[in-house]
């Protein structure tokens, strides 16, 4: 099967990243905004992949931002990496990866209480590449599961550069991200797949433990009160191969008991 990359032509980082992918050898296929390099296909879409307006998913196109399941069926795509901008209030130059989904109401696109299937080992492979020699001043981390897309069958995850326009237009930083995506897509790692519960949004514990595990969906401590058996079931089902969970030791005792009970009902051990 081919491996997919997608980006938005409306995203300043996507614009920079597309030029670099083309410099790296991606060629037009004859299909509009579809490029190929070996077994990797790049799909450039026009709307933002994650809508900017809070609590509203644009009605058009439908499905928003494009029908990734139709793309996957047509091109036999194994998983999709979303190369994107990252924004943070701190403005810290960053390189991040994360799964997508909404534990609560959909704040930035997608459906309420729905998680998108992800690809834990490919995400780990790219994350480990990002850690090798990031540009000076850039922090590398996981992020907990958040925002859209949520509704497609194809496994997806984001690989991002941020946190401001200076970084989105930074050729060196975007080149590093592109090279890590391409290198990671060829690594074929086989680490044990786990889920993550607790900790901050930037997953300090899970980021370190990516050396030994491939994390699928991660619920930061602020999302734990929202968890239900259905949502944890989605975390398991949509993190292919998930066999256990890592609980951050900073979880409040009540939250820990809740997570352990939900995992126990699903037969998932906590490490």
Would you give an account of this structure?
- The protein is an alpha/beta fold.
- The chain has a domain at 2-189: AF0625-like (Aminopeptidase, 3-Layer(aba) Sandwich), CATH 3.40.630.
- It contains 8 helices and 13 strands.
- It has helices at 12-23, 68-75, 120-132, 165-168, 171-185, 204-209, 229-237, 253-266; strands at 2-8, 27-28, 34-37, 40-45, 77-87, 94-98, 101-102, 114-115, 139-142, 156-163, 193-197, 214-219, 242-247.
- An 8-stranded mixed β-sheet has the order 2-3-4-1-5-10-6-9. Strands 12-11-13 form a 3-stranded parallel β-sheet.
- Helix 3 packs across helix 5 (171-185).
- The two termini are 33 Å apart.
- The model has no long low-confidence stretch (mean pLDDT 97).
Fill in the CATH topology of the domain at 2-189.
Answer: Aminopeptidase
Give the SSE order as H and E letters. Answer: EHEEEHEEEEHEEHHEHEHEH
- Biggest pleated sheet: 8 strands, mixed
CA-based shape: globular
> Strand order across the biggest sheet?
2-3-4-1-5-10-6-9
Radius of gyration, CA atoms, in whole angstroms: 18 Å
Mean pLDDT: 97
């Amino acid at each position: 099967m081919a491996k997919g990359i997608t980006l938005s032509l409306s995203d300043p980082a996507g614009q920079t990243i597309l030029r670099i992918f083309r410099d790296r050898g991606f060629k037009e296929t004859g299909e509009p905004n579809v490029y190929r390099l070996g077994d990797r296909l790049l799909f450039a879409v026009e709307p933002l992949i994650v809508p900017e307006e809070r609590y509203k998913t644009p009605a058009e196109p439908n499905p928003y931002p494009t029908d990734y399941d139709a793309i996957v069926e047509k091109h036999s795509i194994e998983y999709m990496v979303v190369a994107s901008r990252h924004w943070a209030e701190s403005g810290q130059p960053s390189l991040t990866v994360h799964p997508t989904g909404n534990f609560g109401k959909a704040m930035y696109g997608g459906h309420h209480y729905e998680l998108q299937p992800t690809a834990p080992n490919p995400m780990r492979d790219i994350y480990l590449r990002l850690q090798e020699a990031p540009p000076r001043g850039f922090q590398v981390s996981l992020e907990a599961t958040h925002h859209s897309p949520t509704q497609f069958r194809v496994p997806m995850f984001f690989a991002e550069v941020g946190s401001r326009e200076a970084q989105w237009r930074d050729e060196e930083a975007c080149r590093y991200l592109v090279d890590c995506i391409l290198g990671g897509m060829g690594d074929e790692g086989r680490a044990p797949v786990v889920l993550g519960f607790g900790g901050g949004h930037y997953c300090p514990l899970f980021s370190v433990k990516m050396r030994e595990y491939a994390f699928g969906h991660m619920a930061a401590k602020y999302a734990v009160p929202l968890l239900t058996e259905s949502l944890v079931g989605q975390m398991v089902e949509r993190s292919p191969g998930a066999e256990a969970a890592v609980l951050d030791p900073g979880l409040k005792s009540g939250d820990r008991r809740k997570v352990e009970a939900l995992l126990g009902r699903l037969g998932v051990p906590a490490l």
